[in-house]
Fold this sequence. Notes:
It is built from two helices and nine strands; from the N terminus they run ββββαββββαβ. The chain is mainly β. The protein has one domain (about 1-170).
Amino acid sequence: MERQVYYCILKKYKGLLKRELAGVTHLFILPRTDYDYLYLALLGERSEVTGTYACVYITRIPDDILDFIISGEKEYFGNRFEIIEQKIAEVKTVEIGAYLVTLQENSDVFLKKQILIAYQPEESTPKKRIYNLVCKLDLETREVGFDTIPAFALNSLATVKPSRLLKFRKIHI
């Protein structure tokens, strides 16, 4: 069954009068099964394996309310929330907690046509579930109106205890 893959960003600003870009959160809405999606936020690239990214689980979205959730995000966050890319894909369950998403068309963000999503129980806590996203990504920000992102903005992708996730490195764009 064909499903949609979404790559979104959420811009963060600082200052009340003079709004200055403070960072960007990279968000992925990826199909998990034929009936639901995973909503993930990027933490960073794994230092031990290139092309493997750690993401924190936000929520599971049933297929029938996906459009409602996306329109709600746009309404709530306004121009801070943008869908950068939306592509058609197929999903297969490889094993429990591992899903293979195959893109049906070329992508500017996902440089490989296959994306492996794998749950990491040894790094997860009851409050934060960690998934690995195995795919080469090109997280360019020129499409959203930025020429460069400050280095500190990449450090603030998501809050996580460093002691739990020592194997991350900064993403260099």
